[in-house]
Design a protein that fits this description.
The chain is an alpha/beta fold and 660 residues long. It contains 21 helices and 18 strands. The chain starts with a strand and ends with a helix.
Length: 660
């Protein structure tokens, strides 16, 4: 559907990436990975046309539509949440207006035999058919499903979008993209705006989506669940792996190890050959052998090893000063802002060395309670009390508000550091990838990831025994998150982490505090245990719904006439005819796909026979075109199978829906 051919993007004479080439197929699930600054977001902008390429082309078939969620998007005011979501159906809305116009025109005409009247009838029929094929009658239900899945409540639907934070409004933009059902969805860090439950819903949606998906994410589990192909951008070059992220990591290491082994073997061969040439260059008896070795070297294809970006964080938190056994005690605590209650009745105790997570929907009070513990926000009710000798290190989400943009990177640390540690500031900044001239950059020009690293570096300036980290991984790449997680697992103090990153939390925390419906609930165990129990709890609630008992025949006979079951009205004849026509169309698609598979299977079986005995058929197996043709056939066969499966699923879904 989309072909990226030799694309190069340059800034200030430096290539961000060079000669990138790959194809996005119609059902691809691609994870775009690489370090912060590698050019992933820029590549998405090049695909959409927002960013011009310095070289190369991006081509797409004429009927391809693209839905793009950027990290920052223009947000719209003046509508309710539901009204804004329904703008995704602009085509359907226009179609509905046109159907109404055509109906009025036809109703006012009496020239039933004229060609113009017949054209109106045909246009109305086509418009109505397209409207129903696009599920025009279910727009409201589709919008409700998307909004609820992304964390909104029904009570939010009629609220103005201006009442919501930027993160929630980005969810509305995401809902609009999903509702438009484009051919290709491009998502740049979509999980940054979502909580754990919404991420789970989005995973399920994208797995079953009928179009292609290309996404950037630093959430390893999200990538593994959704994607089946990984495209890596590293040091300006691209590598394409037809596997999810975790398998890509293994294959990449194996490929580089194989390259290195082959490279080392070739270098040994070159050295031995050069030594032979040097030793016998001037001996007449060896002249033929020397010339042969020289030609051998000239013809040798030099093996190249992929250059690897080895830069990564190097974090080790200072040893925690000893605190009392009870580090934090929260008793019947709550928080209100005016008449709005955020949560109430929070009650728990943290002991020295505990590592816990705050999870839940955005807006339920996770950050608020963290700020109450730090002392930045007063407690509305109950108590929040720190234990003996507790020193808090706090990493906040709003780094822009806590760091002066006019200070340099070095000054930001220098103004906080006291004592001997001031002599080690350059080493600390180097551990967080601020080296050379980068330490003289002003904070206001730093990227989100760079600000996150700088804020984390400030926590190194003083030993703390209680760390409170609010979404520390939002702007971090995979390797940085792994290094941070390892450092926190080795940290000997007490830890509270607010996060929606399941992979980051698993193995790090032993308790989960869930913020939901104005309450704070404690769950013992890791994040996977919590998610499993929440899933089972949701299933139990569904199963616990009372099922109306079927009345006995005697009861039916003795029931008053008004309580007797009412027979369902007969299905409208025109509606029944329309359903039959649509079913025939879907069934024809299944049969056509089956016929194509049967044809390709016969062709494939013929090829399999030829490949089993190539000599008998005069096939030259050394000719790469032979395997290209064979692989192309297998690719067509696999694509036909995918088309058949999709057609069968669509027919089954239609049958289930029409039988209700």
């Amino acid at each position: 559907m989309i072909s990226i051919n030799g694309v190069t993007v340059s800034f200030g004479g430096r290539n961000l990436f060079d000669n990138i080439t790959f194809v996005v197929g119609d059902r691809d699930r691609i994870g775009l990975v690489g370090k912060n600054g590698a050019g992933k977001s820029t590549l998405l902008k090049v695909i959409t046309g927002e960013q011009p390429a310095s070289g190369g082309t991006v081509s797409r078939s004429g009927d391809v539509t693209i839905g793009y969620l950027a990290q920052q998007m223009p947000l719209h005011d003046g509508r309710t949440v539901m009204e804004e979501a329904l703008t995704a159906f602009d085509e359907l809305n226009a179609l509905e207006i046109r159907i109404a116009e055509l109906g009025e025109q036809i109703a006012s005409r009496t020239d039933y035999q004229s060609a113009s009247y017949e054209r109106l009838i045909h246009e109305l029929s086509d418009a109505t058919e397209r409207f129903h094929m696009m599920d025009g009658d279910s727009r409201q239900a589709q919008a409700e499903k998307a909004l609820l899945g992304l964390g909104f409540r029904r009570s939010d639907f009629e609220r103005s979008t201006s009442e919501f934070s930027g993160g929630w409004r980005m969810r509305i933009e995401l809902a609009k993209i999903l509702l438009r059902r484009p051919s290709v969805i491009l998502l740049d860090e979509p999980t940054n705006h979502l909580d754990i439950e919404s991420i789970g819903w989005l995973e399920d949606y994208l797995k079953d989506y009928r179009g292609a998906v290309v996404l950037i994410s630093h959430d390893r589990r999200f990538l593994d669940t959704v994607t089946t192909r990984t495209v890596e951008i590293m040091l300006g070059r691209m590598h394409d792996y037809n596997v999810p992220y975790s398998k890509y990591v293994v294959l990449r290491a194996e490929r580089r190890a194989q390259q290195m082994a082959a490279y080392e073997n070739q270098q040994k061969l070159i050295k031995d050959t050069e030594d032979f040439i040097e030793r016998f260059r001037y001996k007449p008896t060896k002249s033929n052998q020397v010339q042969s070795r020289i030609k051998q070297l000239e013809k040798l294809d030099i093996i190249e090893v992929d250059e690897e970006d080895t830069s990564s964080l190097s974090i080790r938190f200072p040893s925690a000063p000893r605190s009392g056994n009870i580090v934090l005690e929260v008793k019947d605590a709550g928080k209100c802002f005016g008449d709005k209650r955020i949560f109430a009745g929070a009650e728990f105790t943290l002991e020295r060395g505990d590592k816990v997570a705050f999870v839940g929907r955005n807006g339920e009070g996770k950050t608020t309670l963290a700020r109450m513990i730090v002392g930045d926000t007063p407690v509305s009710e109950g108590t929040v009390r720190l234990g003996y000798n507790v020193a808090i290190g706090y990493y906040a989400q709003n780094q822009e508000d806590l760091m002066d943009g006019d200070f340099t990177v070095f000054d930001t640390l220098d103004r906080v550091a006291v004592g001997d540690i001031r002599t080690r500031l350059r080493d600390i900044l180097g551990a967080f990838l601020f080296r050379g001239e980068e330490i003289d950059k002003k904070v206001k020009v730093l990227s989100g990831g760079e600000r996150s690293r700088l804020a984390m570096a400030r926590l190194m300036l003083k030993p703390y025994n209680l760390l409170i980290l609010d979404e520390p991984t939002n702007h971090m790449d995979m390797r940085s998150k792994d290094v941070l997680k390892k450092a926190l697992m080795e940290y000997d103090g007490t830890l509270i982490v607010v996060s929606h990153d399941r992979e980051f939390l698993e193995g790090l925390v032993s308790k989960v505090y869930e913020f939901t419906d104005g309450r704070v609930r404690e769950h013992l165990g890791g994040i996977d245990d919590f998610l499993y129990r929440r899933k089972m709890e949701s299933m139990s609630q569904i199963e616990a719904k009372p099922v109306p008992e079927k009345p006995s025949m005697a009861a039916e006979r003795s029931a008053p006439v008004s309580e007797q079951p009412v027979a369902k009205p007969q299905v409208d004849f025109k509606r029944q005819k329309e359903l039959e026509r649509m079913r025939r169309k879907l069934r024809s698609a299944v049969e056509a796909a089956e016929a194509e598979i049967e044809r390709l299977e016969a062709e494939k079986n013929e090829w399999d026979g030829k490949m089993a005995d190539p000599g008998a058929y005069g096939i030259d197996v050394a000719d790469p075109k032979v395997f290209e043709e064979y692989d192309a056939l297998k690719s067509r066969y696999n694509k036909a199978m995918n088309v058949w499966e999709a057609a069968c699923e669509e027919l089954e879904a239609f049958d289930n829906k029409s039988s209700l």
